[in-house]
From TrEMBL, chains A, B:
It catalyses: tRNA(Asn) + L-asparagine + ATP = L-asparaginyl-tRNA(Asn) + AMP + diphosphate + H(+). This is asparagine--tRNA ligase. It comes from Gossypium lobatum. The keyword Hydrolase does not apply. It comes from the Eukaryota. Signal peptide: none annotated. Keywords: Aminoacyl-tRNA synthetase, ATP-binding, Ligase, Nucleotide-binding, Protein biosynthesis. One of its GO terms (biological process) is asparaginyl-tRNA aminoacylation. GO terms for molecular function: asparagine-tRNA ligase activity; ATP binding; nucleic acid binding.
């Protein structure tokens, strides 16, 4: 089955000589990317005759022709499609190649397969370079189709499945689209802190970060190995000090020589030092250090209580109020005990912040950003999107096209409530009562975007009572310049607002919602000194992936999901 | 001083009409970026006659001409250069505009200033749109030149200084260069977890993440408001149960009606339920929950001890061994009590991981990545680099050019030690002894890169005794396939290795260094099933910024530095 160069037609020989011009070799590896073969518009047919080295993991393999050769479907994660590889029995022990999950690196020649096969190209192997075997009886994910729930118990291997690999590529594409969008529009990427001593909206849901527990455990071990001095030890040391003191006194009274006195004083000092060390050690107590019955955070790593951030917004505002257009893209945390398919304890957020801009600008930016991401996926990830459409959500590609092309509906909160009330009159049942002043529930949001308008909807100007203190108070004194972007499939995708830039107004609002001023003094400084009209929003990155792919559970669109009771790896 | 349209020469009128064609308006704001004026190769001269709206903060301002007009140097963070703005006294109270830090938005017309001035263009204001005032007596950073150390106490305002703004733009550029480099080379960006239950290299330096303390404080408060039942309360409840039980028994013995018995049983059940509730509450104890004298982590948020990650490497390997080429770029943490100018408790790391690749590929990738970043800065941030060269480090631009163009020296650890020993023989003094087997100290690394070679140096094949268990054992059984990239100014910039892909060898190495196997079983699985040759490295992102800018203290190149005793905002 193997053929020699001599058997190739001249054009193929030429192609083989110019290999690097046509098949992209990976820059930091001696193999080619499988995508550079099967991801071509011609399915790779134009590469027939080229010699390549390919590496990847076997998706499915089978011995054929009574064991004279094997077919392997090889995938290296560069695209959803596999490369069909044909290995002759003379080149390797075929039974060691065919198990799902086996890693193989092979040299071979690309050939057009016989008429009637699905593939446009296949690789006839000339040499098996290396094999990473799999014992199929022990491999935790041997089959190609496993439930997403099952895979959550095998986080370290699940990226080897078609679904999780496709999600990884889509997630990567959306992340780079995010950076590209904001960079193209002159935003600076700012790394807001993960560790924070500011509490954005109430400490209830924050994870605490501390070294007090490990320090106290270290101390506990140390005290067992090396017990603290007893009262008797300390009394004895005190006795030594007093004796040495007496000795010095006597020498002085006796007008002893200077050197004698100096020596004696040195002895005294040594005794004093020893006593003070013992007294210090006697104060050491196992357990977390306390003061006045409360934990003594002055002894914690940052000399105060520290938490994991729930949002970078307040901090990134300090940069917006200095370099105008900024965004964060980083992990955020909620210590919520929610076990839903929409919540994670650790998730990624994108938070732009724009100076010299108002709520209209904010909505324009949010809409442009979401459309940009949709277009990016259609442009760069269509093969993965086709896989998602085939396997999970028929409508996902149409949804991207629709959102990318249709202007988002924009309605005020008041209009939204009127529409919901109309719907109720028309017989629509909601679990949560509809009236002006409520926070819109997910069912209301989904009704607006999925039923009423069947496209993205931006709701703006919410009642101030249900929104955060930093949102700009409108002239009606009842609503604030907030906006939420609702999209089919997930409901709320983005929440944002124009920020209150007037010092007196925001100070009043902080007090009104019952927060102390002191922790916000730095935030107030932004309004005290050179204040600027500004706005921003937050996009839950995993929600965007759910929206794009149609995947139901947020735990499947982040590589290492963290939720109550689980933080594997 | 204001001029009307009629006074403009015709070509300027035309230019004014075509404003959006020539001056870039910010996409989500009604102002133009100052960079789009003064950042042009002609310094903005070609825009004379155009009407624009500009916004920014006053760097310096002064009233002139006996108070008839004011000069403002306006900066919006889009570039290091300011726009010179001239405001007539008739348009605003000039004294309210000139203080450093004042935010102004103005409409005006661009004019070529009189001969002999530094500026190529200035903005003659026609209307002052808005002003965010500053009281210079109270403004914490009123002067334009303040020490970096002073600014660390004003994190929320320091981005308004030339230096911190320039660093923000350089940092942004390096971050996007990082993504661009890896995306161009077909790497997938993978978000490795921040919260982890794996301990990469020994728990000593990890921050613990917990909800136990806040939960116990919540409980403590609740128990004060609503004290737990006393033994007497419980005894009384027990009494009720026994009475109700007796009543049921009697009714049954008396063959009472079914409804009477049912009612009595219901009463009994209610009493039992009450008792069990009281018993449950009586078990509540203030303080962190313990079991067998140890903290009971099954009651913590993740049902086990959790930490902040020190590296995403082990986790990202699971993706490399599935989709081939990946990288992480995220925050990492060390609870080290180091107060040096080179350490942070929270810092950002870039960690690529490449499958089907060995140590040579790893070095090639690291060198190409560093060169790419240097070229990127020279190409896109030259104005900021010129500012750094002028203000902090004369040689920084030359250093970028040198690193971008010169091949990195590559020497083995053994050769490096020989060179250091030669240097010692030649009279060079090191604080740390030089001999084969030592971990190279910073002074050794800087000698090699700054003195001996005066260019970047990659040292590879280190003694296994000083390196991590996951690095691939070389055939000499004494060294591992590790490599460090050393650069002038900072020393070690990158550390990487080929990973041990052989199951038996890595298992042996884990035991050899005294680690338990169980927590690494998932990591071993990557070698058990479909193992692949792979390598990777980590780049400390802040070190790259120090290298590029010549800034001395790492606390000044991250927006919100965290170190022992400090985590402001």
């Amino acid at each position: 089955m193997a053929e020699t160069d001599q058997a190739l037609p001249p054009s193929d020989q030429l192609a083989a000589m110019n290999l690097t011009d046509t098949v992209e070799k990976h820059a930091f590896s001696d193999r080619v990317l499988i995508r550079s073969i099967v991801g071509r518009p011609d399915g790779g047919a134009g590469l027939a005759g080229q010699r390549v080295r390919a590496g990847g993991w076997v998706k499915t393999g089978r011995e054929q022709g009574k064991g004279t050769f094997a077919f392997l479907e090889l995938n290296d994660g560069s695209c959803p499609a596999n490369l069909q590889v044909i290995v002759d029995a003379g080149l390797a022990v075929l039974s060691k190649l065919v198990a799902t999950g086996t890693c193989v690196v092979v040299d071979g020649i690309l050939k057009v397969p016989p008429e009637g096969t699905r593939q446009k190209i296949e690789l006839r192997v000339e040499k098996v370079v290396s094999v990473g075997e799999v014992d199929p009886a022990k491999y935790p994910i041997p089959k190609t189709k496993l439930t997403l729930e099952f895979l959550r118990d095998h986080l370290h291997l699940r990226a080897r499945t078609n679904t999780i690999a496709a999600i990884a590529r889509i997630r990567n594409a959306l992340a780079f689209a995010t950076h590209s969008f904001f960079q193209e529009h002159n935003f600076l990427y700012v790394h807001t802190p993960i560790l924070t001593t500011s509490d954005c909206e109430g400490a209830g849901e924050m994870f605490q970060v501390t070294t007090l527990i490990s320090e106290s455990e270290k101390l506990e071990k140390e005290l067992i190995k090396n017990p603290p001095p007893s009262e008797v030890d300390i009394e004895a040391a005190r006795q030594v000090v007093s004796e040495r003191g007496e000795a010095v006194k006597q020498l002085k009274a006796a007008k002893a020589s200077k050197s004698e006195i100096t020596a004696s004083v040195a002895e005294l000092n040594k005794a004093k030092e020893n006593l003070s060390k013992l007294e210090e050690r006697s104060k050491l107590k196992p357990g977390i250090p306390k003061k006045d019955g409360k934990i003594d955070y002055t002894q914690d790593f940052f000399a105060r209580q520290a938490f994991l951030t729930v949002s970078g917004q307040l901090q990134v505002e300090t940069y917006a109020c200095a370099v105008s257009n900024v965004y964060t893209f980083g992990p955020t945390f909620r210590a919520e005990h929610s076990h839903t398919s929409r919540h994670l304890a650790e998730f990624w957020m994108v938070e732009p912040e724009i100076a010299f801009a108002d709520l209209q600008d904010d909505m324009n930016c949010a809409e442009a950003y979401v459309k940009y991401m949709c277009n990016w996926l259609l442009d760069k990830c269509l093969d993965d999107m086709q896989f998602m459409a085939k396997s999970y959500d028929k409508g996902c590609i149409d949804r991207l096209r629709m959102v990318a092309s249709i202007p988002f509906v924009r309605i005020s909160y008041t209009e939204a409530v009127e529409l919901l009330e109309e719907a109720v009159k028309g017989g629509k049942k909601f679990e949560n009562e509809v009236k002006w002043g409520i926070d819109l529930a997910s069912e209301h949001e989904r009704y607006l975007t999925e039923v009423k308008f069947q496209k993205p909807v931006i709701v703006y100007n919410y009642p101030k009572g249900i929104k955060a203190f930093y949102m700009r108070l409108n002239d009606d004194l009842k609503t604030v310049a907030a906006m939420d972007v609702l999209v089919p499939k997930v409901g709320e995708l983005i929440g944002g607002s124009q920020r209150e830039e007037r010092y007196e107004v925001i100070r009043e609002r902080i007090l009104e919602v019952g927060l102390p001023l002191e922790p916000y003094e730095w935030y107030l400084d932004l309004r005290r000194y050179g204040t600027v009209k500004h706005c921003g929003f937050g996009l839950g990155f995993e929600r965007m992936i759910l929206f794009a792919t149609g995947i139901e559970n947020i735990r499947d669109v982040i590589p290492f999901p963290r939720y109550p009771g689980r933080a594997d790896l």
